[in-house]
Fold this sequence. Notes:
Chain A is α/β, with parallel strands linked by helices. Chain A has helices at residues 9-19, 39-52, 87-97, 109-115, 120-126, 171-178, 191-203, 226-232, 245-252, 271-282, and strands at 59-63, 78-81, 102-108, 131-136, 139-140, 146-147, 182-187, 208-213, 234-235, 259-265. Helix content of chain A is 33%, strand content 16%. In chain A, the strands form 2 sheets. Chain A has an 8-stranded mixed beta sheet, sandwiched between helices. Chain A has a two-stranded antiparallel ribbon with strand order 5-6. Chain B has 3 domains: 7-208, Pyruvate-ferredoxin oxidoreductase, PFOR, domain III (Pyruvate-ferredoxin Oxidoreductase, domain 3); 214-390, 3-Layer(aba) Sandwich (Rossmann fold); 480-599, Rossmann fold (3-Layer(aba) Sandwich). In chain B, helix 15 crosses helix 18. At the A-B interface, strand 1, strand 2, helix 3, helix 5 and helix 10 of A face helix 9, helix 10 and strand 15 of B.
Amino acid sequence: MSPEHPIYLEDKLEEIRGSGRLGYRSKSLPTWCPGCGYYSMTEGVTWALNEIGLRNEDVVIVSGIGCASRFPFFMETYGFHTLHGRTLPVATGIKVANDKLTVVVVGGDGDGFAIGGGHIPHVARRNVDITYLLFDNGIYGLTKGQVSPTSAIGFTTSTSPFENHDQPLNPLMMLLSYGASWVGQAYAGQPGHLAEMIRAAIKHRGFSYLHILSPCVTFDKTDRTYRNLDFSVRNLPEDHDHSNRLAAIREATKVDRPAVGLYYVENRPTLSDTLDEVMIRAGGKPAEQAGAG
Amino acid sequence: MTSIHTDVQIGICGSAGDGTIAVGDILKRAMARAGYRVIAFDEYPAEIRGFGKCVARTRITTEQVYSMKPKTDVLVSLNDAHAIPHAEEVRDFGAVIYDSAPITMIDEGWHISGHLNPGQLPYGLPMREISEQATGSSRSRNIVALGFVAGLYQLPRQAFIDAIAAKFQTKAAEVTQSNVAAFNAGYDNGAEIYRFDKVEVGPPARRTRVHDSTMMTGNAAVVRGCLDAGIETFFGYPITPATSIMERLAVEMPKHGARLLQTEDEISAISATVGAGFAGARAATATSGPGFALMSEMMGLGVMAEVPAVVFVSQRGGPSTGMPTKTEQADLNIAVFGGHGDAKRIVLAPTNVEGCWRCAGRAFEMAEAYQTPVVVLLDLYLSNRYETVVFPNKNPFVRDAWKRPTQDNANEPYRRFELTADGISPRAVPGDPHGIHTATGLEHNEFGRPNDLSAMHFQMTEKRHEKLNAALKHPGITIYKRFGDTGEVDVGLLAWGSTFGETLEAMLLARAEGIRCAAMKVVMLSPLPVKPIKRFLKDCKEVIVPELNYEGQFANLVSGAVGRDVIRFNRVTGKPMAVNEILDTIRSAAGKRKLRKSAA
Ligand SMILES: Cc1ncc(C[n+]2csc(CCOP(=O)(O)OP(=O)(O)O)c2C)c(N)n1
Ligand code: SF4
Ligand SMILES: [Mg+2]
C-alpha cells in the first residue's frame, strides 16, 4: 500500500480529526514502546468503533494484565482493566448483566493462553457475544521478556536461558476445536487489514476470536520481528471456505506461513439467547437489564 | 389447666435405607403446619448410597429457638445398632421407641432395650408387623413409628396426614393412601398405650394459620433473600454445602427474569460476578472454603475497583477438601482477611435461618451502597438446618441503593473515585454517557488513571477502608445484640454464626442455675463493631468465646481489636457445638470467679 503522493502531517491530522475516530480516544497517550505492534490496536479499534457507529458509553473494553492490557486507558469508552487471565469471565459477567453493551476483550498471549487458558473453551462453547482480540507477541512483555506458551522452540528469554523446549500452542486450532463461532487472524504490521478484521469481529453476533501477530520490539529481536513476519505472513487462499471448520483447521496447521483473514464463521444462538430461552421455559419473561434505569 | 409451654426434641435414628430422614421431614413439616416452631438438623453419611447412619433431630417449641437441646426427649430407633450410641442422649423420663419384632434376627447385646439407663422409658412396638397389617408391606415401618409418636403425644393427626400427602404429591394416589394407613395404624397404637414417660406437648402458642410461618433451611432463606433483594445475575460452581443455593436459584431466577450461569470454576464465578456488578447488576455467587480460596484475587479487584458483589460462603470442615459434609467455622480468617493487600471488605455472619434471609438481602444493599464485595458467611449446619421463620408482609429490601453521578458537573471529566467526606464516590455504570471511565486493579487517582504516588495510595487506601464504617449503621439489620442479664455479669459469652444458637441456649440454662451471665452475638465480622463489643466486655468478669475451629479465629479477632484476652472454647468435631459443653465452661468460669473471690 505504498502511497502515491507524500503524506503531510497536517493533512493526516486533518483527516484523522475529520474522521470522528478521535472521539473514541481518551486523553491518555499510549505508553507502549515506540514501534510496538500494539499501536495497531488503538488504530484498529477506534476505526472499527467509528465505522460501526457505536456510542462510547455502550462500549466496554475489558483487559487483563500485560502490555496489551493497558489498552482501555487509552480509550474513551467504559473500560475494566482486570486481573491477569480473567478477562473472559469478567466480560461474560458484563454481557450477562447487560446485553446492550458491546464488549471487547483485549489481552496478551500469556494472559490468554497461560494463566487464563482454562476460560477460553467455555466462552467459546457458550458463544458469549463478545469480541476477543488476542495480541500474540510470543513473549511476556510487561514482566520484561519471559517465555510464553506461544514462544517458538529455541527461543531464548530470561527464563529460558538455554532455549525454550516446550512446543508452542496453536491458538487458532484450539479456538476452532473449542467451537468459537468466529475465528480470524491478523498481523499488526498490516494495520488496515487488522482494522477491518476488528470491525468484522465486533459485528459478528457471538464469540469472535481474532488472533493478532504482534512484534514486541523490545524483548524479541530475533523471532517474531516485523522483518520475519513480513516475510512469512500470507493471506488465506482466495477460495478458502470459511464455513468449513476442517478447512479452517487445515489452514491453521500451517504455522510456518501464518495466514491472515477469516478462518471460520457460523451463526448459532448466543449465551444471551440461551438464557432468554431458559427464562421462557421457566415461565418468566426477560426483565429490564442492569444499567437500563 | 395452664397451657404447657412445649419444648420437645425428637430424634429418629436409622440407616440410610430405613427412611429416617424422610420421616424426620414429615414430622417437622407437620408440626410447622400445626403452628409450632421447629428447628431440625439431620446427620447423614457422606456416601451417596449405602446403609450408613442417619439421625434426624427435630425440636418442637412454642417460641422459636436456635439450637438443639442438650438432651433428647424421645428417641426412635429404626436400627438398633446405629441407635445404641445415641441412647445416652435421651433424658431421664424420656422415651425410647424401638422395633420389638424387627425383620432380621438381632444378635444378643444389640437390642437397644439392653442399653437404656434406669429412668429412660422403653416402648417396644412391632413396627414391621403393624406396617404389614396396614399396608401389606414392611416398608412403611418408619411411618408406623412416626404415627406411634404422634399418637403417644396426641399430636394433631390431620397436620401429619396433610404433610404425608404433600410429600407424596407427585407419586400415585395409592402411595399416599398406604402411607396414611401406616401412619394411622401407628397413631392408634400410640394413642391406646398407657404412657408413663414425662414428655409433654401443649397446644401451639396461638392459633397460628398454616402459612404464617414458613419452614426452611438456611440456604433456602438465602435464596429467598436474593430474590427479595431483586438479584439479577448469579454465577456459581457446585460445592457442598453451598450447591443448594444455586440449585434453587436456577429454578427461581428465570421466573423473575434473572440470569444464572454455572461457570467452569470459582475463579470464573467470582470474575463474572464482579463483571456483572461493574455493569450495574445485583450479582452474587455462592461457594464453600475451597472455592472461596480460589476467589481471593478477584475479591481484591472488587475492593480496589470498588465493585459491588455478594459472595455467600458456607463453611465445611477444612483445610483442603476436608470434611465436605461436616460443619465448621474455620473460614473466618479467610473471609475477613483473605487475599493480598489492604483489602478490607464487609463480612456478615447470620446466626439463624431468618438471619440468612436478612443478611442476604442487606448484603446486596451494602455491596451497592458501599461499592464493595460483601461476604455472607454461613456454615453447613446453618445452611442445612430447618427453622420456622415468619417473614414480614412487606419486602424490606431496597433496590438501587447507590449514589449515582449528578448532571451538575456534566462538563467536567467524571471522577469515578472522587475523594468525598464519607469515602463513597458517585458511581456510574456502562450505558451512562456522563460516567465514562476505566476501572482498574492498579492503584489509581480520582479519575481511575493508574497512579502510584505515595500520597495517592494513602488517600485511596484510607477511602476504601473508611467508607465501610457506614455499614456499621446500615438500616434494617442487627449487627450485634446482647441477651441475658443486663449490667455487670460474672460470665459473658461472645459468639458468631450458627454457634450463637447453642451459646444462647447454654447461657439461658446457666441463668436458670443462678449464674449471672449474658451473651452477645456479633453478626458483622468486618468492619467489626468494636465499641459495642468493648462495652459488653467491660461488663463481663469472664468472657468465653465458643466457636467451631481449633485456634479461636473469632477470639483472635476480638482480642486483637479490644486488647483483652478471652476464654477460648474451641471444638472441631464436625458437629454443632454441644450445649452442655458450653454450659460446663460457663459453670467453671463462674466457679473460678467464686473461688477467686473466696480466696481474696
Ligand atoms: C496472578 C498474576 N501472576 C503474574 C502476574 C505478573 N504478570 C503481569 S503481566 C504478565 C505476562 C504478560 O504477558 P502477556 O500476557 O503475553 O502480555 P504482554 O505484556 O506480552 O502484552 C505477568 C506474568 C500478575 N500480574 N498476576
Ligand atoms: S515491552 Fe514489548 S510488548 Fe510491551 S510495549 Fe514494549 S514492545 Fe510492546
Ligand atoms: Mg505477550
